Structure formats: C-alpha cells, structure tokens
Amino acid sequence: MPIWLDLVVRVLIVIVAAFVLPLIIGQTEHKVMAHMQGRLGPMYAGAYHGWAQLVADGAKFVQKEDITPRAADKPVFKLAPVISMLPYMIVLLVIPIGPGNGWVAQRLDIGLFFALAVLGLGVIAVLMASWASANKFALLGGLRAAAQLLGYELPFVLAAASVAMAAGTLSLSGIVEAWRPWWLLWQLPAMLVFFIAGLAEIRRPPFDMPVADSELVFGYLVEYTGLRFAFFMLAEYVGIVVIAALTTVLFLGGWKGPFGLDAELGWLWTIIKVVAVAFVVLWLRVAYPRLRVDQLQRLCWLVLVPVALAQLILTAAVKLAL
Amino acid sequence: MTVADVLLTAIGAVVVGSALLVVTTRHIVHAGLWLVVTLTGVAALYLVLTAELVAWVQILLYLGAVVVLLLFAVMLTRAPIGARDDLDRPRWPGVLVGLGTAGSLAALLANAYRWDKIELPAAGTAERIGEHLFRSWVLPFELVGLLLLAALIGAIALSRSGDE
C-alpha cells in the first residue's frame, strides 16, 4: 500500500470512529440510565429496544433552526463547536488498540505527552463558546469550566506521569508492553486519580458544574441549538471514549488479556476494557449528585493532588528498589 | 528550497500575521484567540525543526495553561463583545520596541551566521532532551525548579494575605 493511501485509510478510520463510537456510548447511556432508574428508556425508534434513537436524535438536530443570538460574536460562536470536537479526535489518533503498528493510527514516541497536551486544549472551545454566546449564564458556566479544567489538569498529568515513570517510556504502546498485572495494585491510586480527573476534564457528572442545568440553565451551551449543540454533545461522548481508552491503555494493560493470544485477540481486550470503563462513567452519572463548586476544588487540591504526588513518590521508590 | 523551507516560510507567515492581529485587533478577547493561533504556529515551527517534545510542551503549557489563564482573567474582568476604541494601547512606543527588537535580532542572526549552512541536530526526542537535562544541565534544572517553587509559594502567600 502506498504511504499516502495508508495515511488516508488510518485517518478515515479515526474520523469514522470519532463519529460512530459516541453514538454507541450515547445509546448505551440512554439504556443503562433507564434500567438503573427502573425505566425502559427509548423503545420505539428502530423497533428493537430503540436502537436507532440517536440516529433519530441526529435527524432531529439537523432539522432544528440554527439560531445565533444577535449580540453574539458570530465567528467565534460558530467556530467553538468544531473546536470542541477537535482535541478528542486528534487524541484518538495515537491510542493503540492492539500490539504493533497496525493497530494504532499514528505511533508516536511521546504519545502520552501528546495526548495530555492536546486534551488540555478542550477548555479553549468552552471559553470561546461561553464568551461568544453573550449570555451571563454561558459566561458563568465557561468560567466554572476554566477553573475546573485548569485545576484538574494537574492531578490528571501527575497520575499519568506516575505510570510513564513506572514503564520508563512515554509511548502509549510502550506503556502497555511494560505493563504487568501487579501494576493494577501498585498503580491503583494513580488510576483512580486519573479516572476521576479525567471525568472532570470532560465535565461529566458528577463534575458537570459548568453546565449545571438546575442553576446555570445549561452553562456555556445555553445558546446553542441544532447541529452546533449536537457537536458539543458528540464531543462529550468522544471524550468518554478517549478517557476510557486512556485509562485502559495506561492502567488496565490495554490489549493484554489473561489467556495469551494478545497478538490475535488484543483488539478485543482493548474494546472490552474500554466499554467497561465507559460503563462506569455512565454509572457514576446515575449514582452521584453533582458536586458544588467549592467541593469540586476541595476534592481536586486536597485529595487528588496529594494522592497523585504520594503515588509518584511510591512509583519512584519501587522503581529504584527493583 | 526544500519542503521544510516552504513549510517554515508558510507557518512563519501565519505566525507573524496572527501576531500582528493580536496587537492590532480592537476586540480584546479576539486578541487572546489570535494568540492561540500564533502559539500553535510556533509549535508547528518546532515540529518542522524536528523538536517534537518542545512542540508538545509548547502546546501543553502555552495553549493549555497560559492562554487559557489569560482568557479566563480577561473574561473575569471586562470582556465586551464587539470592537472597542478605548483600549489603552501605546502605539508608537509599541511599534518602536517591536521593530527594534525584531530588527536587532535579525541583524544579529544575519551577522552571526551569514550564509553558513547548519546541519539540523538529531531529532529532539524526549529521550535526548532528558539525557541532556539530567546529565549536563542538572544544576540549572534544579535551580529553575527552586525558582518556580518560590514563585508558587509567593503566589499562595499573596493570595492568602487578605484572610485575617
């Protein structure tokens, strides 16, 4: 295969994944939430247990009137939804699904660093959306989001640094190769910190302070309708995939399964693990109420950051002892 | 001209153009957003020069933290939508300092290297930078760490002073 065709195919796969996976996650969320709350959830669209609900939602979003507030800053307002999706799509490029070069869109020696750097850009789209909406609820939501994301970036990066230190590499594939099952125990605090901070990074409940529908209406999304709103939703669900995939690759051993056969079945293990982590993300939304702004910052600075730092010391100590 | 030359020139043009917009636009938040473009362009320049790690550090620190903090601060104070004419912007001193710095830097570099060809060193991977940092430059590295720690403690002390 010529190199450009190879590149095009890989990029296309990632783009398709970035648009299809969120739909699957979204549909699962409908059903999981419904059953946890003793409801049935969507049942009619597509006949069988409402499997086509999100396709129908998509069709609905396309038909909705595209409203831009008169006072809004139009170019920035229109650009924000696209930018919100970009970082997550770019991160998908470097996440390995299986061993070798064939199971990752672009192998990078510093894949972890790349992923963390690009994920940090999500907040720019939020700030753009919140400011350009010319709405005080939107602006408040954006400010909350910025404070939250800046704060949680720290434990997020520290937890990831711990596992990179343990593996002795910044390459995501390299980390999975270095991973051993006992790391589940050794890196457990880092995993919890990474996962919780990751949830806060993608602003999922219980960390959805910036959109808090009961106090800020819908935060920075309040002025968005139709396709633009759908883009933000899509970004949120790709975010779930990205956080679940990064947790899998960094802390759960990626494509490594309990029976060997990693070369053939590795991709399946990765997918099973990603789905399991994504399920927990959805579960937490049903299980926990939203944190207050002060609780949110308290959790970050008084729990997650110290735990992440302690984990770094532990990792360094074990690494030196071995 | 090689591909790298073309890329450097094109990205350089974007960087200079957006940087000019940062200082000339009359929308205060747009200035911050153009800064995003400028700094992304600088990261792209590093990438073309194969300094991979520095490029992503640039993205992580300048875009993910510095610009966000800047936008955050602007939005906390006064960030009207639309152009404003009352932005306090010393035009002539700015032009003087900007052109002066750019001109003297250009003159310095031109004088130092003339038409010398300089081979690019090996790619700036994390491994190489780490080796240099922790073998040859440990002391400066630790000193910078200390300096940043002092700044951090200073910031905490300043922000807590109003508590009593």
Essential attributes:
heterodimer; A: 322 residues; mainly alpha; B: 164 residues; Four Helix Bundle (Hemerythrin (Met), subunit A); 2 domains; 6 helices; 76% helix
Characterize this entry briefly.
Chain A is mainly alpha-helical.
Task: Describe this protein's structure.
The complex is a heterodimer of chains A (322) and B (164). Chain A has 322 residues and is mostly helical. Chain A is 70% helix and 0% strand. In chain A, helix 5 (122-132) runs antiparallel to helix 6 (136-167). Chain A starts with a helix and ends with a helix. Chain B is globular and about 50 Å long. Chain B is built from six helices and no strands. With 164 residues, chain B is an all-alpha fold. Chain B folds into two domains: 1-81 and 105-120, Four Helix Bundle (Hemerythrin (Met), subunit A) (Up-down Bundle); 125-164. The A-B interface holds A 71-73, 76, 109-110, 113-114, 116-118, 120-121, 123-124, 127-128, 130-132, 134, 139, 142-143, 146-147, 149-150, 153, 170 and B 27, 29-30, 33, 36, 52-53, 56-57, 59-60, 63-65, 67-69, 71-72, 75-76, 79, 81-82, 125-127.
The main sheet of chain B comes to: none
The number of distinct structural domains of chain B comes to: 2
Oligomeric state: heterodimer
Helix count from the secondary structure assignment of chain B? 6
Mean pLDDT of chain B: 84
Distance between the termini of chain B: 65 Å
Share of residues in helices of chain A? over 70%
Tally of distinct domains of chain A: 1
Task: Please provide the ordered H/E string of secondary-structure elements of chain B.
Answer: HHHHHH
CATH class categorisation of the largest domain in chain B? Mainly Alpha
Helicity level of chain B: over 70%
The total beta strand count of chain B reads 0
Percent range for β-strand residues of chain B: under 5%
Shape of chain A: globular
Succession of helices and strands of chain A: HHHHHHHHHHHHH
Query: Low-confidence parts of chain B, pLDDT < 50 over ≥5 residues?
Result: none
